[in-house]
Amino acid sequence: MTDADSLSGTLLIAMPGMPDQRFSHAVVFLCAHSEEGAMGLILNKPVPDLNFGALLKTLDVPMQGAHSGLGDAPAQANDPVYYGGPVETSRGFVLHTPDVFLTDSSLSVTEFASLSTSMDILAQVARGQGPAEVRLALGYSGWGAGQLEDELRAGGWLTCPTDPGLLYGTMPERLWSGALDKIGVDPRLLSSKSGRA
Fold first, then answer.
1. Burial of 117 (0-12, 13-18, 19+ CB in 10 A)
2. 52, containing H or E segment
3. How far is CA 125 from CA 51, 62, 82, 84, 112, in A?
4. Which of 24, 28, 88, 147 is the 20 to 30 Å CA partner of 157?
5. Which parts of the chain are beta strand (E)?
């Protein structure tokens, strides 16, 4: 697989008939894709009863400013934490703009998206010194070698080029339809029969 064949930095849009309910109407941002497999984060499934402030409190990361917000931080205490996928659901992943990049724990995905797994990035966000845009997820979505390609051929996913507006500026309940709109697909015309996740 060449870099040109890689779908890293692309959105996957689950077809309506996705048999795995964890991926029903999911929009996944692919952070890595190679011959060895693929890894991404679901961006439109908030974890029930968990927000950014509560997660920071659980991790004992002090917040700057009032309890209702994080001061000058781009994320607010009541911002959602997303279910990134079924793999390693107790592990946190921070998708963010690359204006803050930790050399030892950040992966550059696109010119507007980096992925970090370090507690340092959370501490910076809590202090109001973090990246301009942030999406926090627990767990990730993973595919073994050839698995994602098989699911794409089976019609389980559509692909969509991403942009900062979709990645950071679209409400989770609008992301699935917004991504379909970006590629000119009317969701009412999609078949409910698709491949597996």
1. middle
2. helix 52-58
3. 14, 10, 16, 19, 17
4. 88
5. 10-14, 27-34, 37-42, 46-51, 80-83, 87-96, 106-110, 113-116, 134-143, 157-161
CB neighbour list of residue 126: distance below 8 Å, 6 or more residues apart: 56, 61, 62, 63, 64, 70, 73
Q: What letter represents residue 129's amino acid? A: Q
Q: Which residue has the tokens 């697989």?
A: 1
**pLDDT tens, residue order, the chain (197 aa):** 566 679 999 999 999 888 888 999 999 999 999 999 999 999 999 999 999 888 888 888 877 754 434 444 456 778 899 999 999 999 999 999 998 877 777 899 999 999 998 888 888 888 878 888 999 999 999 999 999 999 999 999 999 999 999 999 899 999 999 999 999 998 877 765 544 44
The three-point CA angle 43-39-127 to 5° equals 55
Instruction: Report, in this order, helix, strand and coil percent for the chain, each rounded to 5.
Output: 25, 30, 45
**Are the C-beta atoms of residues 73 and 128 closer than 8 Å to each other?**
yes
